[in-house]
Amino acid sequence: MWDVVVVGAGPAGASAAYAAAVTGRRVLLLEKAELPRYKTCGGGIIGPSRDALPPGFELPLRDRVHAVTFSLNGRFARTRRAKRMLFGLVNRPDFDARIVEHARKAGAELRTGATVARVEQHGPAVPDRRTVAVVLADGETVLARAVVGADGSASRIGAHVGVKLDQVDLGLEAEIPVPPPVAEDWAGRILIDWGPLPGSYGWVFPKGDTLTVGVIAHRGEGAATKRYMDDFVARLGLAGFEPSLSSGHLTRCRTDDSPLSRGRVVVCGDAAGLLEPWTREGISFALRSGRLAGEWAVRIAEAHDAVDARRQALNYAFAIKAGLGVEMAVGRRMLGFFARRPGLLHAVVTGWRPAWRAFTDVTRGTSTLGGMVRNSALARRAVEALDRREAAERPVPEEEQPLPGPEAERPEADRGVRQGE
To answer: How confident is the model at residue 414 (pLDDT cuts 50, 70, 90)?
Structure first.
């Protein structure tokens, strides 16, 4: 009988396993792949990610970013620079493996090659109401007092909990080895390109002798997203270099009312649909939600009845919604504005000093989108302006439009005469 079983050894799962294991509980971390393994991800480590890492964690940085070039579908490029590092870049296989190692050193046991088929909280496999049965694909059953689902955006644990999603995006990415002169040109600088599809953008992240190049757009625009990727790579002058890896990935954001738990099972990271809706940044959301999930899973494991377990699960949900949920709400507003007015957003970010300062504050971790809205009157006014603009531009459904009255039925000329009177 394990106190906590964590499913998935990415940043969310490894953080959850670490947070539970440092309390001295018996923790099992299950991962279906062999580690290290590749994940489609830019690998940007912003301030909130760094701050959520275990004490003593040394980031395996491939580069340190001090400059950002912004462009609008390849045009109007402008580079903004900072004296201090904005954020770091990592290769996900190295980064994930290092977090897992910290979880193991804290006392968690790791099992790779373990695919979870389902979890059960009732039935013959469950000996009592305080137990969750984790059934593996090979038929083995693992018993736990609490389970954390961190098994990615196509999560089986998320399906058990009933996670609901309202934004699904397709990301395409290539790892492109480049010669030293090209690598030197990109060192310390990333590119963010606001793309041709509503809500889309592309990126170039340098990592030594390799460039991570990718684009993301709403799901359902697969062919157009692929064209954007091809055009983006060609425009950068990288089409002649053979990628070492090319991959695709779906990112999914939760609805506001999506559950985060069911009984003694909680979800975090991509499995919960927790990521920033505008940039689709997920590492910081995974690390922060994973840490909270691990901490509250310990409390759930200690609960002696269903009522207490439910209370602890609700406390976990409150902690998520009060922090990450606020950031997601602001991100949704930003995505809506960006999808409609990418040119205006580009002009603001590249030409308005407060916007650049906000960008640097978020990437360094001195603030968050949610924190800015809570603490800055200027940020609140900006968000309120976005809301008003969105409401003004939103088409009124036909069923909500007013029915024509006598005034509307009068001839135009007659109406003008009567109004003049």
So the answer is: very low
